[in-house]
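Bumping my old thread because nobody answered last time. Still need a sequence for this structure:
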């Protein structure tokens, strides 16, 4: 059983993915960022999914629901390992693939008995690792082509073909296992450092897996795929405030009848992995656990879909049996029905309130501070929004005036006026993207939903952190009773 944590006190968090750190990895910048959060009185560090990504870099289209992204491994920490015998000063850290290959060779040749035993234990304990490592090895040996384009013997996982491939690709398979060992070691060391300094990690779990993922290849019967691995139906959302035409995500949907018949074991294992890596987890697209938007794979537009019921309550009951009270945050944005709200509230999951959405539609707008409740997280914006300054600057003059009027004409300018509003809220949790804390414009935006290029690349540099910034944040948190 995984022990879970969920603070019940008023507190504040910062949203920043690992790839937005200056070195974009789990090295010294990550530890320095924890120190910054501690100095500022922040309690929660919210991140995006940690899985290995495809070429578009989206952390919501990962190659595995369990594996970590090897690109997040700190190469500097790796070359500082005692078994890495080349002097660190002689290593070109810009060549990531070479360094990881060299690290595997050195570990194999020079690691201590204790390190080798820890590696062996890790490989035994990760039920998903053997299949994932072979999946990645096959994918790399075939120029990274997606599994559903492989030859039938590999695509359909014929036992003799897989046995032969595992033997032929043994070194590559072992190297993939080694990289996961290093990732988990570095991540859990960072998490331990954060926890010991009073920082909880709020992770993120996409509801769906990518079509080109180890999960879909290993257990295709759980997904809406035909016998050749091709999509039958795909996930997405109808038109909403993020997109006037809706979004066709392209992920396979679940065959919930088969998952239910298996007593939700696929989900039990998935949640178990995530709860080992994070203290709390945000379930992306929570409404899909009540009803999901099913789009025929042959349709190119999301509007051709329909709503289909999902067994969310039965799933969460099964997860509670395994893990107790679930430290889950429900991403309840989009088209939210009374049934979705009832599912969220049945399990006491905090929902989300986005302040950038609060100033449309009049006094009934559910994102207005007057409609906040204690059991929710209030955000100025998320990774899918423009920065608060970018959003505000894009508004016409009369709308900007209305925003300030609605906030009671605060003395602070944007984005700090909206940050203060978040901290004032009755919501137990208030989370602010680092881009807003740094008062960045649209150049700091992380993602534009519905677009495939240019996203997930933003990162900050330490020169942007002004010396008095932690004290300013600490003062606001103290004023609004968010220190712990």
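Sorry it took so long. Here it is:
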């Amino acid at each position: 059983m995984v022990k879970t944590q969920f603070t019940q006190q008023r507190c504040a968090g910062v949203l920043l993915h690992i790839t937005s750190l200056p070195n974009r990895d789990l090295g010294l910048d990550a530890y320095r960022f924890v120190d910054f959060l501690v100095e500022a009185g922040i309690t929660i560090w919210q991140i995006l999914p940690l899985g290995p990504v495809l070429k578009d870099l989206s952390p919501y289209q990962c190659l595995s629901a369990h594996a970590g992204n090897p690109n997040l491994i700190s190469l500097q920490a790796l070359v500082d390992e005692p078994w890495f015998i080349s002097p660190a000063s002689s290593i070109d850290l810009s060549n990531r693939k070479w360094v990881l290959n060299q690290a595997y060779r050195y570990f194999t040749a020079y690691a201590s008995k204790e390190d080798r035993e820890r590696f062996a234990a890790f490989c035994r304990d990760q039920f998903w690792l053997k299949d994932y490592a072979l999946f990645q090895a096959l994918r790399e040996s075939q120029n990274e082509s997606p599994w559903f384009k492989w030859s039938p013997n590999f695509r359909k996982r014929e036992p003799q073909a897989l046995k032969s491939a595992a033997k032929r690709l043994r070194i590559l398979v072992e190297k993939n296992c080694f990289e996961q060992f290093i990732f988990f070691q570095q991540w859990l060391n960072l998490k331990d450092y954060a926890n010991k300094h009073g920082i909880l990690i709020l992770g993120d779990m996409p509801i769906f897996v990518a079509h080109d993922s180890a999960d879909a290849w290993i257990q295709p019967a759980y997904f809406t795929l035909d016998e050749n691995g091709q999509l039958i139906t795909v996930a997405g959302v109808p038109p909403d405030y993020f997109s006037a035409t809706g979004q066709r995500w392209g992920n396979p949907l679940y065959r919930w009848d088969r998952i239910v018949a298996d007593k939700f074991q696929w989900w039990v294992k998935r949640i178990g992995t995530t709860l080992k890596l994070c203290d709390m987890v945000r379930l992306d697209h929570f409404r899909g656990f009540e009803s999901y938007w099913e789009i025929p794979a042959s349709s190119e537009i999301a509007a051709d879909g329909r709503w289909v019921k999902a067994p969310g309550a039965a799933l969460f009951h099964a997860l509670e049996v395994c893990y107790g009270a679930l430290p889950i945050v429900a991403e309840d944005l989009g088209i939210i029905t009374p049934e979705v709200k009832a599912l969220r509230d049945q399990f006491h999951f905090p929902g989300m309130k986005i302040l950038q959405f609060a100033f449309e539609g009049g006094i009934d707008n559910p994102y207005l501070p007057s409609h906040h409740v204690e059991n929710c997280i209030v955000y100025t914006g998320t990774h899918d929004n423009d920065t608060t300054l970018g959003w505000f600057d894009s508004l016409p003059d009369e709308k900007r005036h209305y925003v300030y009027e609605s906030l009671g004409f605060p003395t602070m300018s944007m984005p700090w006026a909206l940050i203060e509003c978040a901290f004032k809220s009755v919501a137990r949790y208030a989370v602010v993207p680092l881009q807003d804390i740094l008062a960045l414009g649209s150049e700091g935006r992380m993602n534009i939903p519905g677009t495939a290029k240019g996203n997930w690349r933003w990162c900050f540099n330490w020169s942007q952190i002004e010396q008095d910034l932690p004290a300013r944040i600490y003062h606001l948190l103290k004023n609004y009773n968010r220190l712990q």
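Residues 137 and 173 are 6 Å apart (CA to CA). Let me know if any region looks off to you.
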